[in-house]
Amino acid sequence: MDQTLNYTSTLQTITDLRGPAGRLEALLNTGANIGAPDAGYSVLVCHPHPLGGGTMHNKVVYHTMKAFQGLGLPVLRFNFRGTGLSEGEHDQGRGEQEDVRAALDWLEERFHLPTLFAGFSFGSYVGMRVCCSDSRVRGAVSLGLPVHADGRDYTYDFLCACEKPKLFVSGTRDQYGPKAQVESVVAQASPPKTLVWVEEADHFFVGKLDEVQRAITAWCSANFPDVAVQ
């Protein structure tokens, strides 16, 4: 018998998330699956490069949150050090990895659940470096995988040892992740892995964010069917 699942969400401002550089500004969208078992995972979403204006309010980050929230999962977004109201100073991706670890610790303490990770651009690079080796994270999503952006090169040797499910979603017109270079990175990554190309999309998926959400939902359904809407 078909059953319609209804989801509600409450937005909470988080005041007790702290990293090595100080307090990190954060928001939690609490996923609630009414009439069904509690969520089996928590979710962490990381934002793009702060020097390019990236924050947890970025449109790609927001729509990524909505995709996971639609599955009834609690989703934490935060601003890296030196971004928005977060304390500290930007650290070129080094200290930001410690911020990710602090966010994972917070989620573990709050929910006592395994975690799914998703990051956009710089947030993908920084977050996946941490999450691929953290046993608390069961799957990772990379959106707009950057290869070369604004004079910065990104390398992904660590992906060859990352054996948890991975989803890569990129636009065929991504100016920071050309198709051939992204395919080369993904080819070197350890399975399981899924690469989804969004046709005619640029790095920011302008006009294509619904396709990004569908890709995330489909990946969750294939790899974590216990949390996917049927």
Q: Can you tell me about this structure?
A:
The protein contains 5 helices and 12 strands. By secondary structure, the chain is an alpha/beta fold. The strands form 3 sheets. It has an 8-stranded mixed beta sheet with strand order 1-4-6-5-7-8-11-12, sandwiched between helices. The relative contact order is 0.15. Mean pLDDT is 92; it is low at 1-7.
CATH homology group: Alpha/Beta hydrolase fold, catalytic domain
* Order of the strands making up the biggest sheet: 1-4-6-5-7-8-11-12
Mean pLDDT: 92
| Cα-atom radius of gyration | 16 Å
Strand content: 25-35%
Order of helices and strands: EEEEEHEHEHEEEEHEH
Largest β-sheet summary: 8 strands, mixed
User: Helix amount, in percent?
Assistant: 25-40%
Tally of individual helices = 5
CATH A-level architecture: 3-Layer(aba) Sandwich
Tell me the count of domains. 1
Structural class: alpha/beta
Span of the ends, CA to CA:
12 Å
Please give the CATH class: Alpha Beta
Note the overall shape: globular
CATH level-3 fold name: Rossmann fold
**Total number of strands:** 12
Give the topology.
Elements lengths: L5 E9 L3 E2 L2 E2 L2 E9 L7 E5 L12 H11 L5 E4 L16 H17 L3 E6 L1 H10 L5 E7 L4 E2 L2 E2 L12 E6 L7 H10 L4 E6 L10 H15 L7
Parallel strand pairs: 5-6, 5-7, 7-8, 8-11, 11-12
Antiparallel strand pairs: 1-4, 2-3, 4-6, 9-10
Helix pairs in contact: 1-5, 2-3
Please give a quick description of this structure:
The chain has 230 residues and is an alpha/beta fold. It has five helices and twelve strands. Helices cover 27% and strands 26% of the residues.
